[in-house]
Amino acid sequence: QVQLTESGGGLVQPGGSLTLSCAASESIESMHAMGWDRQAPGKQRELVASINSDDSTNYVDSVNGRFTVSRDNAKNTVYLLMNSLNPDGTAVYYCYADSPCVPGFKDYWGQGTQVTVSA
To answer: What is the bridge-based pairing of β-strands 113-117 and 10-12?
Structure first.
């Protein structure tokens, strides 16, 4: 089973930037998509960003233009660059990977990493 290990979370000031990493235990080339969900206290989990095997990307409207998702197949790693952070970005961020067999089905999950945006 694929293991996803997240890193890069922490405390950042409003307006600052933070980069999250998600390293997979095996090749990610066969995965149809990978990406990031997040969940803030008292809120539903939501999709933040995704990246497909052809490097096309999707973003939730609230982060479009500020966040960038990318993948490095040689390193089996997906990244989320978060710029212009505001307190709404405070949440636990979860990396996911689609099933190699079922496009659109989030089969594998990272352990979650806390991002806190505060002065």
So the answer is: parallel
pLDDT in tens, the chain (119 residues): 899 999 999 999 999 999 999 999 999 888 789 999 999 999 999 999 999 989 999 999 999 999 999 999 999 999 999 999 999 999 999 999 998 788 788 999 999 999 999 99
Beta strands 106-109; 113-117: pairing state: unpaired
Whole-angstrom distance, CA of residue 31 vs CA of residue 99:
6
- What ranges make up the beta strands (E) of the chain? 4-7, 10-12, 18-24, 33-39, 46-52, 57-59, 67-72, 77-82, 91-98, 106-109, 113-117
Single-letter amino acid, residue 101: C
